[in-house]
Amino acid sequence: MSILPELIGAIIAAYILNIITALRYRNKEKIDKGFVMNYHKLTYRRKFKRDLWGLPFLFIFFSFLYEFLSTIDFIIIFTLFFILVFPEMIYHYVKWKRTEEVRD
């Protein structure tokens, strides 16, 4: 029995929640120092740093996931995450550098 439909459903629900919270904090002031629990209150620099810190945990998650899924299911989930996560990291890096240039 495949758990792929449940995983894809959970991923879609998480991204819908992510979009809702992103829209809620869209035009609010961003925080660049100190601890912030909400990801959408961070500046682009801090978002990029948090994305980098999350990569090791993502690879640990995929190593555990590899044990429980069939090969094709694992490839589908890994590809989905790769398509969603890495462009977002690149976007945060580019926006961080652009906002840094504007400040200088």
- Any idea how many domains? 1
Helical content stands at over 70%
Strand content: under 5%
Described by strand count, sense and barrel closure, the largest sheet is:
none
- Characterize the overall form: elongated
Structural class by helix and strand composition: mainly alpha
The number of helical segments is: 3
Number of strands: 0
Indicate the low-confidence ranges by residue numbers.
none
**Element-by-element helix/strand order:** HHH
Mean residue pLDDT: 87
Quote the distance from N terminus to C terminus: 56 Å
User: For the CA atoms, what is the radius of gyration?
Assistant: 16 Å
Structural features:
single chain, 104 residues, mainly alpha, 3 helices, membrane, transmembrane helix
What does this molecule look like?
With 104 residues, the chain is mostly helical. 76% of the residues lie in helices and 0% in strands. Helix 2 (44-68) runs antiparallel to helix 3 (71-103). It is elongated, with a radius of gyration of 16 Å. Keywords: Membrane, Transmembrane, Transmembrane helix.
Write the layout of secondary structure elements.
Layout: H1 4-24, H2 44-68, H3 71-103
Helix pairs in contact: 2-3
Overview in brief:
With 104 residues, this protein is mostly helical. It has three helices and no strands.
